[in-house]
């Protein structure tokens, strides 16, 4: 089993910054892709950013230039630095770790952390 523990959410004014962290623990061999998703009220969960073990990054268009994803492979931790936050960034943010590949891929989710951006 793998547990993902998120931290760093909170309330911030528009234009402010937050840094999310997600640490994985348990029976971990090698995490392939680590990512952050978010879900706003009444909307579907969407990918915010993800990063491969080799460091390739992928961002949603809505956060490009404002958010930066990074990871510490030794610590099994993924980070999301969020700058220039907007009210539309308000959502519950979930970290996601993917193991394996192709038909053998499996994943775990964190419990979610609330990010609220006031105007």
Q: What is the share of helical residues? A: under 10%
Biggest sheet overview: 7 strands, mixed
First-residue to last-residue Cα separation: 40 Å
Which radius of gyration do the C-alpha atoms yield?
14 Å
- The residue ranges in which pLDDT falls below 50 over 5 or more consecutive positions are none
List SSEs in N-to-C order. EEEEEEEEEEE
Strand content: over 45%
Number of helices: 0
Number of strands: 11
Question: What is the average per-residue confidence, as pLDDT, rounded to a whole number?
Answer: 95
How does the overall form come out from the CA principal axes? globular
Structural class: mainly beta
How would you explain this protein's 3D organization?
It is a single chain. The chain is mainly β and 119 residues long. Helix content is 0%, strand content 56%. It has strands spanning 2-7, 10-13, 18-26, 33-39, 46-52, 57-59, 67-72, 77-82, 91-99, 106-109, 113-118. Strands 2, 4, 5, 6, 9, 10 and 11 form a 7-stranded mixed beta sheet that branches. Strands 1-3-8-7 form a 4-stranded antiparallel beta sheet, with no helix packed on it. β4 (33-39) and β5 (46-52) form a beta hairpin. The radius of gyration is 14 Å and the shape is globular. It starts with a strand and ends with a strand. The model has no long low-confidence stretch (mean pLDDT 95).
């Amino acid at each position: 089993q793998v547990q993902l523990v998120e931290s760093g959410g909170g309330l911030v004014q528009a234009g402010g910054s937050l840094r999310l962290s997600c640490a994985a623990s348990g029976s971990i061999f090698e995490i392939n892709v680590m990512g952050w998703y978010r879900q706003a009220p009444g909307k579907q969960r969407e990918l915010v950013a993800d990063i491969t073990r080799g460091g390739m990054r992928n961002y949603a268009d809505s956060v490009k230039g404002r958010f930066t994803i990074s990871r510490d492979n030794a610590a099994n931790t993924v980070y999301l630095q969020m700058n220039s936050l907007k009210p539309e960034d308000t959502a519950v943010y979930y970290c996601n770790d993917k193991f394996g590949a192709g038909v053998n891929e499996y994943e775990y989710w964190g419990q979610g952390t609330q990010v609220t951006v006031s105007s």
